[in-house]
Amino acid sequence: MKALVYHGPGKRSWEERPKPVIKDSTDAIVKIAKTTICGTDLHILKGDVPTVTDGRILGHEGVGIIEEVGPAVSNFKKGNRVLLSCITSCGRCEACKKGMYSHCENGGWILGNTIDGTQAEYVKIPFADTSLYHVPAGADEDALVMLSDILPTGYECGVLNGQIKPGDIVAIVGAGPVGLSALLTAEFYSPAEIIMIDTDDNRLDVAKKFGATKVINGKDGRAKDKVMEFTGKKGVDVAIEAVGIPATFELCEDIIAPGGHIANVGVHGKSVQLHLEKLWSQNVTITTRLVDTVTTPLLLKEVKAGKLRPRQLITHEFPLADIMEAYDTFGNAAKEKALKVLMKAA
Ligand SMILES: NC(=O)c1ccc[n+]([C@@H]2O[C@H](COP(=O)([O-])OP(=O)(O)OC[C@H]3O[C@@H](n4cnc5c(N)ncnc54)[C@H](O)[C@@H]3O)[C@@H](O)[C@H]2O)c1
Ligand SMILES: [Zn+2]
Ligand SMILES: [Zn+2]
């Protein structure tokens, strides 16, 4: 089969690899129908994720068709169409029993990280019964690919941890696919205002179309002043950090109102200043989370009902065989006006 293989920082190739085979009784082999590229894959290619080693097939998102299942898999059979999750969960360990699948002792984020991923013609999924989801009949499969990672991430790490409620003033820093997913799912709770902050005007335009009530381009370094002005110097009830750099987390610290929630979503590679000398008396909560994908069933229902429309996040489509070109497009997101690139198998 063909697969997109990582060969160390800056090096990737679309090459011939052996088709995966069932090893454990709980495995399933899935033929990939659709997959996509995540910002995290770009981090991997920069060499930022040391657990990913030379020879790894990348990718942790997609929709596919069951090709074969191990003898212990009871929920899926050959021919079923399935949504893949970026998180693999055994369903039995202490973390899984708490619903914290991201910290599964036998799984977690392993796909396209410590085991071969979904940017290939076939992928092996461990613990298939607890890691795959049936595609609901009649669902828009292209849209469902957005449920493998970015929508549960924006929803769980941003919206749920941020405890958004009706009437809240919410700021989302970062209008990438994850920040925009937080925006789409924040709307479940009817906040009064959703302020989107980014440095890319195209993404801010998209945010407006998705329902942001105010957009701020932070390029001039005045995002804090603009938020404080807009909120009558009060600040925001919920600040969601969806970039992953010190400046944007510190912006969240600067704009949070007393009693507010700062929900970190971004993957941080550098330490960040925690201004406890200002925040200690402010009754704020700061949360962090690796997406658990516990809300995937709920999100599937919202998509099926047409209340959540993640297809809007797809800006480009490629045949799976053109994935090298898809990476070039996604890697130049600002110039190409790219959000999510969808690859479809022939
Ligand atoms: N916690 C988790 O489980 C989890 C899961 C998936 C992704 N993530 C992380 O979420 C973050 C967002 O992911 P994404 O795919 O949307 O990334 P992205 O890179 O596409 O989006 C980041 C956005 O931030 C904007 N930005 C950059 N610098 C800025 C600044 N100084 N001020 C305002 N905006 C700025 C960029 O223009 C871009 O639109 C990343 O750090 C990613 O690794 C976390
Ligand atoms: Zn991802
Ligand atoms: Zn587990």
Features:
346 residues; alpha/beta; six-stranded parallel sheet; 27% helix; 24% strand; binds nicotinamide-adenine-dinucleotide; binds zinc ion
Please tell me about this protein's structure.
This protein is of the alpha/beta class. It is built from 13 helices and 16 strands. The strands form three sheets. Strands 3, 5, 6, 7, 8, 15 and 16 form a seven-stranded mixed β-sheet that branches. α5 crosses α6. The longest helix has 11 residues. It starts with a strand and ends with a strand. The site of one zinc ion has 5 residues, from loops.
Heterogens: nicotinamide-adenine-dinucleotide, zinc ion
Number of helices: 13
Protein structure class: alpha/beta
Stretches with pLDDT under 50, minimum 5 residues: none
Q: Describe the sheet with the most strands.
A: 7 strands, mixed
Query: pLDDT average, as an integer?
Result: 97
User: What's the count of strands?
Assistant: 16
Question: What multimeric state do the chains show?
Answer: single chain
Q: Tell me the overall shape.
A: globular
Helix content, binned percent: 25-40%
Secondary structure layout plus pairing:
Blueprint: E1 2-6, E2 12-16, E3 28-36, H1 39-45, E4 56-57, E5 63-69, E6 81-84, H2 94-97, E7 122-125, H3 128-131, E8 132-134, H4 141-144, H5 150-160, E9 169-173, H6 177-186, E10 193-198, H7 201-209, E11 214-217, H8 223-230, E12 236-241, H9 246-255, E13 256-264, H10 276-279, E14 285-287, H11 296-304, E15 314-319, H12 323-331, H13 333-336, E16 340-344
Parallel strand pairs: 9-10, 9-12, 10-11, 12-13, 13-14, 15-16
Antiparallel strand pairs: 1-2, 1-4, 3-5, 3-7, 3-16, 5-6, 6-8
This protein binds nicotinamide-adenine-dinucleotide and zinc ion (2 copies).
